């Protein structure tokens, strides 16, 4: 929309604001001068109508169910590319050529080892610690180990920190799992792909080497691609906000992990499978649908609904098919998948879900696949964090490289007491 402006009438005074257009998607009203001009702020809790930044990484059209990374549709990337390719694409803006992909993969592979002293750090956690609790702590601790890549003003250090984070996350995640089940840590195997190496570090034990099944590696890689980035979601916005103060990248990603853990966000995959198991059999579905619709019951159908997708989540479509493929391949008949499919059908025909535009999201089917591969539910959000690290790092780099970047500092609508005088305790 060339040269468009938006007019605001406040107390009889009119002010004008530029309307900015992206390459696609809704225009935005540039209100940066609003406070200076009118003395008023905007009020938008949950940022439902606010663009917090510009970005060239990911585009979502929630009404059409479209998700693009650097312009490429997610279903094409999930079907035809690899997680390493998508990581390169998100970080660099273009798909890699053959030589570029080889160099990038080699660089990531050479960074998979963790400083040996970090294993001591793990031992400080209770043996039954949730792996996400371990992830928050260990990733935050990376800044104490890799001082030579914490200067955010040095582009080369930013690249090294990005590679380290992407490369070390599978090792950290696998170690969190090993620690929580009381098994010895398994070192990375650089002869394997990113995803196969992660599966080996997770499932190998000294007594029995795990040989990754190509079908499982492929499904896992697909899950990683589908979780790699998702625009300005809560954890990504957390990473950007933390990074806007100049905090080092390891601390910023630890902040993102903490935010992701919540059940409304990345924690939903764990909650969704727990819910499906609790429902147990399709005949109990109506009871849970009724609970989800009951305003007095805090229960929500986990893995349903999305702030942006109001048609369908394209990631859920890919995963719905992948769930059947993986279970067929493994020869598993999991009643949870039957419950999930039945629940989806019932919910999609229910007026409440139709009116509120609630559809299965990425977390609805991912748990069925991860469980079939052998992951306990407590690892689900860890896997999300592992994959989303690529998006967090790419978004953080995009923000830091912007010369106009400012510290994120929202304002508020104050509703507390107005000024009053202190009363000494003896007189209260
Ligand atoms: N089950 C039942 N009712 C729901 C659900 C649900 N899963 N989701 C939303 N609603 C209702 C909600 O009660 C509200 O009703 P009303 O207008 O009568 O108050 C309406 O739909 C709008 O919900 P909202 O909470 O205002 O919407 P939101 O955009 O703030 O929340 C959400 C989005 C994803 C947090 C929410 O849909 C939800 O809690 N879903 C379950 C958790 C989940 O699956 N999260 C994963 C999201 S995808 C992966 C990720 O981003 O991490």
From TrEMBL:
This entry carries the following GO cellular component terms, namely: cytoplasm
Catalytic activity reported: oxaloacetate + acetyl-CoA + H2O = citrate + CoA + H(+)
Catalytic residue list: 306, 363
Q: Name one GO biological process term.
A: tricarboxylic acid cycle
Q: Sorted alphabetically, which keywords does the UniProt record give?
A: Membrane, Transferase, Transmembrane, Transmembrane helix, Tricarboxylic acid cycle
Q: Which GO terms describe its molecular function?
A: citrate synthase activity
The domain of life is Bacteria
Organism in which the protein naturally occurs: Sphingomonas jatrophae
What is one Pfam family matched by this protein? Answer: Citrate_synt
User: Key word Transport present in the record?
Assistant: no
> What pathway does the UniProt record associate with this protein?
Carbohydrate metabolism; tricarboxylic acid cycle; isocitrate from oxaloacetate: step 1/2
Tell me the protein's name: Citrate synthase
Q: Does the keyword Transferase apply?
A: yes
> What residue intervals traverse the membrane?
364-387
- Spell out the family assignment given in the record's similarity comment: Belongs to the citrate synthase family.
Cited CDD domains = EcCS_like
Supply the InterPro entries for this chain. Citrate_synth-like_lrg_a-sub, Citrate_synth-like_sm_a-sub, Citrate_synthase, Citrate_synthase_AS, Citrate_synthase_bac-typ, Citrate_synthase_sf, Citrate_synthase_typ-I
Q: What PROSITE patterns does the record point to?
A: CITRATE_SYNTHASE
